[in-house]
Amino acid sequence: MLVAAALIATGTPSGATGPEPEAGPAGAAGIDRGVGAVPEAADVVGPAPAAAGGAVAEADVSYHGHVSLWNGRVGIWLATDNHGPAPVSGTTVRLRFSVALDPRAALPPNCLRTGPAVVQCGTGSMRAAGAGGQLALDVATVGIPTEVGVDIDTTWNGGASDHNPANNTHRVLALATGDPYTY
Question: Most exposed: 82, 94, 121, 142, by fewest CB within 10 Å?
Protein backbone atom coordinates (compact mmCIF):
# COMPACT_ATOMS: atom_id res chain seq x y z
CA MET A 1 0.00 0.00 0.00
CA LEU A 2 1.32 3.43 -0.92
CA VAL A 3 1.59 5.93 1.93
CA ALA A 4 1.22 9.43 0.57
CA ALA A 5 -0.19 12.57 2.08
CA ALA A 6 -1.71 10.69 5.02
CA LEU A 7 1.36 11.45 7.11
CA ILE A 8 1.28 15.21 6.62
CA ALA A 9 0.91 16.83 10.02
CA THR A 10 1.81 20.10 11.68
CA GLY A 11 2.84 20.63 15.30
CA THR A 12 0.89 22.98 17.55
CA PRO A 13 2.23 26.53 17.44
CA SER A 14 4.33 27.65 20.36
CA GLY A 15 2.27 28.87 23.26
CA ALA A 16 -0.76 26.80 22.27
CA THR A 17 -2.32 24.68 24.94
CA GLY A 18 -2.35 20.92 24.69
CA PRO A 19 -1.55 17.80 26.64
CA GLU A 20 1.58 17.75 28.71
CA PRO A 21 4.40 15.54 27.37
CA GLU A 22 4.35 12.04 28.76
CA ALA A 23 7.26 10.45 30.49
CA GLY A 24 9.16 8.07 28.27
CA PRO A 25 9.62 4.36 28.93
CA ALA A 26 12.40 5.04 31.40
CA GLY A 27 10.55 7.96 32.97
CA ALA A 28 12.38 10.57 30.89
CA ALA A 29 10.26 13.69 31.09
CA GLY A 30 9.89 15.90 28.06
CA ILE A 31 9.68 13.16 25.44
CA ASP A 32 6.53 13.47 23.36
CA ARG A 33 5.16 10.01 22.56
CA GLY A 34 1.94 10.31 20.62
CA VAL A 35 -0.03 7.78 18.65
CA GLY A 36 2.28 6.20 16.13
CA ALA A 37 5.36 7.48 17.96
CA VAL A 38 8.61 6.20 16.58
CA PRO A 39 11.00 4.42 18.93
CA GLU A 40 14.52 5.67 19.27
CA ALA A 41 17.02 3.99 16.95
CA ALA A 42 18.56 2.11 19.88
CA ASP A 43 15.12 0.65 20.70
CA VAL A 44 14.57 -0.77 17.22
CA VAL A 45 15.58 -4.41 17.25
CA GLY A 46 14.63 -7.06 14.78
CA PRO A 47 15.86 -9.09 11.88
CA ALA A 48 16.62 -7.42 8.60
CA PRO A 49 14.18 -8.30 5.82
CA ALA A 50 15.47 -11.17 3.74
CA ALA A 51 15.58 -11.14 -0.01
CA ALA A 52 15.65 -14.27 -2.12
CA GLY A 53 18.36 -16.62 -0.91
CA GLY A 54 18.46 -15.13 2.61
CA ALA A 55 20.39 -11.98 1.62
CA VAL A 56 19.50 -8.61 3.19
CA ALA A 57 17.05 -6.65 1.04
CA GLU A 58 18.38 -3.49 -0.62
CA ALA A 59 16.42 -0.25 -0.75
CA ASP A 60 17.46 3.31 -1.55
CA VAL A 61 15.58 5.76 0.67
CA SER A 62 15.84 9.43 -0.27
CA TYR A 63 14.52 12.71 1.13
CA HIS A 64 13.85 16.05 -0.48
CA GLY A 65 12.02 19.17 0.60
CA HIS A 66 12.80 22.50 2.21
CA VAL A 67 13.53 24.23 5.53
CA SER A 68 12.33 27.75 6.46
CA LEU A 69 13.04 29.96 9.47
CA TRP A 70 11.00 33.02 10.40
CA ASN A 71 10.35 34.89 13.63
CA GLY A 72 11.57 32.10 15.93
CA ARG A 73 9.77 29.31 14.05
CA VAL A 74 11.28 26.60 11.91
CA GLY A 75 9.30 24.76 9.27
CA ILE A 76 10.35 21.60 7.48
CA TRP A 77 8.61 19.94 4.56
CA LEU A 78 10.02 16.52 3.76
CA ALA A 79 9.03 13.94 1.15
CA THR A 80 10.40 10.40 1.04
CA ASP A 81 11.07 8.12 -1.89
CA ASN A 82 12.40 4.59 -2.27
CA HIS A 83 14.42 4.02 -5.42
CA GLY A 84 14.35 0.27 -4.73
CA PRO A 85 14.87 -2.41 -5.61
CA ALA A 86 13.07 -3.75 -2.48
CA PRO A 87 10.19 -2.24 -0.49
CA VAL A 88 10.79 -0.99 3.07
CA SER A 89 8.48 -1.65 6.00
CA GLY A 90 9.07 1.82 7.39
CA THR A 91 11.70 4.48 7.91
CA THR A 92 12.63 6.82 10.73
CA VAL A 93 14.09 10.20 9.82
CA ARG A 94 16.13 12.15 12.38
CA LEU A 95 16.07 15.96 12.32
CA ARG A 96 18.87 17.57 14.36
CA PHE A 97 18.57 21.33 14.81
CA SER A 98 21.43 23.70 15.67
CA VAL A 99 19.14 25.46 18.19
CA ALA A 100 16.90 24.07 20.91
CA LEU A 101 13.20 23.71 20.15
CA ASP A 102 10.51 25.09 22.44
CA PRO A 103 9.81 22.18 24.82
CA ARG A 104 6.09 23.13 24.98
CA ALA A 105 5.54 22.81 21.24
CA ALA A 106 3.53 19.77 20.17
CA LEU A 107 4.78 17.51 17.43
CA PRO A 108 2.90 15.54 14.77
CA PRO A 109 1.66 12.17 16.08
CA ASN A 110 4.28 10.22 14.10
CA CYS A 111 7.16 12.21 15.68
CA LEU A 112 8.87 12.31 19.04
CA ARG A 113 11.48 14.50 20.64
CA THR A 114 14.68 12.64 21.56
CA GLY A 115 16.62 15.67 22.78
CA PRO A 116 16.27 19.44 23.16
CA ALA A 117 17.14 19.91 19.49
CA VAL A 118 16.39 16.46 18.02
CA VAL A 119 13.16 15.07 16.58
CA GLN A 120 12.61 11.64 15.01
CA CYS A 121 9.63 10.90 12.77
CA GLY A 122 8.24 7.77 11.17
CA THR A 123 7.65 8.23 7.47
CA GLY A 124 5.77 5.01 6.73
CA SER A 125 6.36 2.04 4.49
CA MET A 126 7.28 2.38 0.83
CA ARG A 127 6.92 0.02 -2.08
CA ALA A 128 9.94 -0.64 -4.27
CA ALA A 129 10.62 2.30 -6.60
CA GLY A 130 7.80 4.32 -5.08
CA ALA A 131 6.97 7.49 -3.23
CA GLY A 132 6.60 7.42 0.52
CA GLY A 133 5.07 9.74 3.05
CA GLN A 134 5.28 13.47 3.39
CA LEU A 135 5.95 15.29 6.63
CA ALA A 136 5.28 18.91 7.54
CA LEU A 137 6.76 20.15 10.81
CA ASP A 138 6.25 23.65 12.23
CA VAL A 139 7.80 24.29 15.66
CA ALA A 140 9.03 27.24 17.69
CA THR A 141 12.66 27.56 18.71
CA VAL A 142 13.99 28.73 22.05
CA GLY A 143 14.67 32.40 21.36
CA ILE A 144 14.68 34.02 17.94
CA PRO A 145 17.76 32.80 16.03
CA THR A 146 19.06 34.49 12.90
CA GLU A 147 19.83 31.11 11.33
CA VAL A 148 19.26 27.43 11.98
CA GLY A 149 21.14 24.41 10.72
CA VAL A 150 19.23 21.15 10.24
CA ASP A 151 20.88 17.75 9.79
CA ILE A 152 18.57 15.19 8.19
CA ASP A 153 19.35 11.47 8.15
CA THR A 154 17.85 8.01 8.47
CA THR A 155 18.08 6.18 11.78
CA TRP A 156 16.06 3.14 10.65
CA ASN A 157 14.91 1.83 7.28
CA GLY A 158 13.28 -1.48 8.09
CA GLY A 159 16.65 -3.24 8.18
CA ALA A 160 17.27 -2.87 4.44
CA SER A 161 20.73 -2.22 3.07
CA ASP A 162 21.15 1.23 1.49
CA HIS A 163 24.21 1.54 -0.75
CA ASN A 164 23.46 5.19 -1.55
CA PRO A 165 23.08 6.99 1.82
CA ALA A 166 24.10 10.33 0.26
CA ASN A 167 20.54 11.02 -0.90
CA ASN A 168 19.05 10.56 2.58
CA THR A 169 21.64 12.60 4.48
CA HIS A 170 21.40 16.38 4.21
CA ARG A 171 22.70 19.45 6.02
CA VAL A 172 20.62 22.59 5.45
CA LEU A 173 21.32 26.12 6.69
CA ALA A 174 18.26 28.39 6.74
CA LEU A 175 18.47 32.11 7.44
CA ALA A 176 15.63 33.87 9.29
CA THR A 177 14.17 35.28 6.08
CA GLY A 178 11.17 32.96 5.76
CA ASP A 179 12.55 31.72 2.43
CA PRO A 180 12.48 27.98 1.71
CA TYR A 181 15.98 26.47 1.56
CA THR A 182 15.69 23.30 -0.51
CA TYR A 183 17.54 20.02 -0.23
Answer: 142
Contacts (Cβ under 8 Å, ≥6 apart) of 160: 48, 49, 56, 57, 58, 59, 61, 86, 88
Is 44 a domain residue?
A: no
Cα–Cα dist 61/79, whole Å: 10
Tell me if 93 is assigned to some domain: yes
Q: Which residues of the chain have pLDDT under 50?
A: 1-51
Q: What is the pLDDT of residue 1?
A: 29
Q: How far apart are CA 80 and CA 131, in angstroms?
A: 6
Let me know if residue 23 belongs to a domain: no
User: From CA 115, how far away is CA 135, in angstroms rounded?
Assistant: 19
Domain count, the chain: 1
The full DSSP string for 96-117 is EESSPBPTT----TTEEEEETT
pLDDT tens per residue across span 69-109: 999 999 999 999 999 999 999 899 999 999 999 999 889 99
Is position 120 within any domain? yes
Q: Which domain holds residue 75?
A: 1-13+71-183
